[in-house]
Specification:
The complex is a heterodimer. Chain A is mainly alpha-helical. Chain A contains 21 helices and three strands. Helix content of chain A is 67%, strand content 4%. By secondary structure, chain B is an alpha+beta fold. In chain B, the strands form two sheets. Chain B has a six-stranded antiparallel β-sheet, with no helix packed on it. Chain B starts with a helix and ends in a 5-residue tail after the last helix. The chains are: A mainly alpha, B alpha+beta.
């Protein structure tokens, strides 16, 4: 300060300079501060995605595991006492006998009507058993007895000789044991707020029900068929349906997709038609999946019904809503994605390889088949698997094509009716009861694991076969 | 024969048929043709979509689906009369502008006064003729394009087909989704391309890709079991169990990775020299990013945004699960409202009989949806082409 005071002019100049510097510093600080603040904002925006993903997974896990209050009308131990072995190891006849012993007549009659006779609605119960059950199993001495005079035990025996073990076991569980999960709580409550659960249960009408930890995702869930009771429902049929669809989608889409990619990369010259192909494929990749569902409904389900229902091959029991129709639909859906991915992989093969091959006198196809394709294979495979993993998660097109959620038989080929994992998830989620949400969460985990294993395969293949040029 | 002639002969023998002419290779030609057909298959798919949706939608717009009104003519009707009375009991939404059919003659109603109809006779190429007493009256479900695009009611049972409630719900969920996805997606792209250290990038980018790979039905589950309860705890009971806000927000989260990955590609394509020039002038990282890099990559960012919208419009499972069933023309995003895609899923998930008006109406919605997304995709392509700044 003292120096500045010494000379008025120097003081002015110095003051102005200091002021400028101060203003500049202030501005700079402000700009840098803004920069830092925005950096934080950008960072959190990016992390939002990560947080969303974590919350999504936690939410699913939270519902798929947790605590349940369950009640049985008749504990299985009582039933097992007479046989000396657990229920799930009993034979069909034994299970039939249990049904005969414990289930009401009306329930048994309905079961025979629906599952043995496969009738819809009422039938004449005065008919003798021999006539009614012609072509099915029944004890010969009952042939003349009218159906309505059968005893419970006799009905149970008829069920036991006509249905498979698994179905009978489910029936025993549903109708006799009546294992019922009366209430369920998510994992977070089970872990951190158990007292509240106990209180809630004690206060409710279900007081006295057995409270235990329960994982909705378990081996039974994977291997059991569909059921209307959440506690007994499984995803086996849906899982098999998804795998069948995956297989046929792959068989249809991969040859055409890779073929088209080879054409576009190796053969196509720059004509308007080929440019149209390219533009068209890129636009198809942006068409919503539900539109493909409608295409599938009108073309594969209806127009090609003789082919997709298998009528042309002598299969008679289905309409066009088959695994094959679904596979064609999903193949059309992922075709553009396969093409685009395969094109990129083929494009990445250096020209020198092709030229060397031509130089040795190979023809165009020899060059493609023996040089280009092997070199592009890892990329093509990765792209294909990634697009298949998109296909396996697709729900909307399958609903439109006509997947039905209530199917009790395993799909056994391209012409079966089907349901698929995502369809099952959709159906269960759409129901208002909590327990269906719980098994939906378990099914989501199954689906995600399936997806994860597909993606892991893609990564392994890429690492294993990738070559560097 | 001398030595030279022998050699000459041998050479000729060896090279016989090996002229410099192009040899025909039938196998190669066949392969080429097969591959061409694989390429052409995609064109076939597009044609299939347009033809199929178009054909079924045409059936929807040019019915005439004649519904029995259970009403009959009260008196005999001669060929010239333009006004007559019909029995009062029975159904059918008889109003001016609708077509009716009395045995074989089509008439257009011009006015309704109680049971008395005033009509134009001999409509749709039919001849005006006399009719007996008690002849039955059928009503034509005539859906005009104008009604389809302007009516705010969608009640297939009553013959009301206005797409606006469905379209409105679609636009609402899309708008909410984009309000989430654009800022977050773009910020994520800026962070990943301008700020993130290679290590952070290597972690964050794959996670965003996983987000894009989660099946949409899982997002639907998330919306219904997490987002809706969250909104209800924040805003109270005014938030209904099914609402467009929850579906839109989750859809936004789903679209973040699409927006961020396309925008990031665009940001990465901006040459380093531009950034360095900006730093050289003393700009901070933030200023460089927002005033140099993003404007230079604007075409790509806009394209990403439009692609995001197109995806949101076509998204199905989230809205089918979380946005509610039943068309509802509302602007309140806490209320349930069914979108176009949600409606298609709900109707086709039930028992749908072919050739019913319901079935055809789905294709009319589908066609609208297809053209909307196609237009958006083409626009985004044009934007990328037109406004791309090219750097060496």
């Amino acid at each position: 300060m003292s120096e500045i005071e010494a000379s008025p002019t120097a003081r002015d100049a110095g003051q102005a300079g200091a002021l400028e510097v101060a203003i500049f510093r202030g501005l700079l600080q402000r700009r840098q501060g803004a920069g830092r603040r925005w950096r934080t904002v950008f960072f959190f925006a990016t992390v939002t995605g990560v947080i969303a993903l974590v919350v999504l997974f936690l939410n699913v896990v939270n519902e798929a595991f947790g605590m349940v209050a369950q009640r049985e009308a008749l504990p299985p131990e009582t039933l097992e006492a007479g046989y000396g072995k657990p229920l799930d190891q009993m034979s069909a006849q034994e299970l039939g006998a249990i049904l005969g012993d414990y289930a009401r007549k009306g329930i048994l009659g309905t079961a025979i009507r629906d599952e043995v006779l496969k009738l819809n609605g009422a039938f004449d119960t005065n008919q003798p058993v021999g006539e009614l059950l012609a072509g099915r199993n029944y004890p010969p001495e009952l042939a003349e007895t009218p159906f309505k005079q059968l005893s419970e035990a006799q009905m149970g025996a008829i069920l036991g000789t006509n249905l498979d073990r698994e179905r009978l076991y489910n029936m025993v569980m549903e109708k006799v044991v009546q294992l019922e999960i009366v209430e369920s709580w998510p994992l977070n409550m089970a872990l951190f707020n158990r007292a509240a659960i106990e209180q809630e249960l004690a206060a409710s009408e279900n007081a006295g029900a057995e409270l235990k930890m329960h994982s909705w995702l378990n081996w039974d869930f994977l291997t059991k068929p569909m059921s209307a009771t959440p506690a007994l429902a499984g995803v086996r049929i849906a899982l098999l349906g998804s795998l069948w669809i995956l297989l046929f989608t792959m068989l249809i889409a991969v040859p055409f997709g890779v073929g088209a990619a080879i054409y576009l990369e190796e053969y196509a010259t720059d004509t308007w038609l080929n440019r149209l192909f390219e533009t068209n494929i890129r636009n198809l990749a942006g068409v919503p999946s539900i539109i493909y569902g409608m295409l599938g409904l009108a073309v594969f389900v209806r127009a090609f019904e003789p082919l997709t229902s298998g009528a042309a091959f002598g299969v008679t029991e289905s309409n066009g809503r088959t695994i094959l129709s679904a596979s064609f639909t999903l193949a059309a859906l992922i075709l553009p994605i396969i093409i685009i991915n395969a094109q990129e992989a083929i494009r990445a093969v250096p020209w020198s390889i092709r030229e060397a091959s031509y130089g040795l006198g190979a023809t165009k196809w020899q060059t493609i088949w023996r040089q280009v394709l092997p070199a592009a294979l890892p990329g093509v495979l990765t792209g294909t698997i990634l697009s298949l993993s998109r296909a396996i998660g697709e729900t909307a097109p399958l609903i439109v094509v006509g997947a039905s959620a209530v199917i009790f038989v395993d799909p056994d080929g391209p012409f079966s009716k089907f349901t698929a994992l995502p369809i099952q998830i959709w159906q269960w989620t759409a129901r208002p009861q909590d327990q269906f949400r719980d098994i939906a969460a378990a099914a989501i985990i199954v689906l995600l694991v399936l997806l994860l294993s597909l993606n892991a395969t893609a990564i392994v293949l890429r690492q294993r076969f990738s070559k560097r040029f | 024969m001398n030595k030279r002639a022998i050699i000459q002969q041998a050479l000729e023998k060896q090279t016989a048929g090996m002229g410099l002419k192009k040899r025909a290779r039938p196998f190669e030609t066949v392969i080429g043709a097969v591959l061409w057909m694989c390429g052409a298959l995609s064109i076939l798919t597009t044609i299939g979509i347009v033809v199929v949706l178009g054909k079924e939608a045409m059936l929807f717009f040019t019915p005439p689906a004649w519904l029995d009104t259970n009403r009959t003519l009260v008196d005999e009707l001669d060929a010239a009369a333009t006004s007559f009375e019909i029995s009062s009991s029975g159904g059918g939404n008889l109003e001016a502008g609708k077509l009716i059919k009395v045995p074989n003659e089509v008439m257009k109603i011009t006015a309704v006064d109680g049971g008395v109809l005033t009509v134009e006779r001999g409509y749709s190429g039919t001849l005006a003729e006399s009719h007996n007493k008690d002849a039955e009256v059928f009503i034509g479900d005539d859906i005009s394009l104008v009604e389809f695009f302007t009516s705010t009611k969608w009640f297939p049972q009553l013959g009301e087909f206005g797409i606006l409630p469905l379209l409105n719900a679609t636009l609402m969920t899309t708008a909410i989704a984009m309000l989430v996805a654009l800022p977050l997606g773009l910020s994520a792209a800026v962070y990943l391309s301008e700020y993130a250290a290679p290590r952070a990038r290597a972690v964050l980018k794959p996670i965003l890709e996983i987000l894009a790979g989660v099946p949409t039905v899982v997002y639907g589950y998330f919306a219904l079991t997490f987002m809706t309860p969250l909104l209800r705890s924040l805003f109270g009971e005014q938030v209904q169990v099914y609402n467009t806000a929850s579906a839109g927000l989750v859809m936004g989260i789903m679209i973040i990775p699409y927006v961020s990955s396309v925008s990031e590609d665009a940001l990465n394509a901006v040459p380093r020299a531009l950034r360095e020039a900006s730093y050289g002038l003393g700009a901070t990282r933030f200023e460089t990013a927002t005033r140099v890099v993003v404007p230079a990559a604007l075409s790509g960012v806009i394209a990403a945004f439009i692609l995001g919208i197109s995806r949101a419009i076509g998204e199905t499972m989230i809205v089918a699960l979380a946005a509610g069933a039943g068309p509802n023309f509302t602007f309140n995003f806490f209320e349930p409202a069914e979108t176009m895609t949600g409606h298609i899923v709900r109707i086709s998930g039930g028992d749908l009989s072919y050739n019913s008006i319901d079935y055809n109406s789905l294709f009319a919605i589908g066609l609208t949806l297809f053209f909307m997304t196609l237009a958006l995709n083409l626009i985004s392509r044009q934007v990328t082409k037109r406004f791309r700044e090219v750097y060496q």
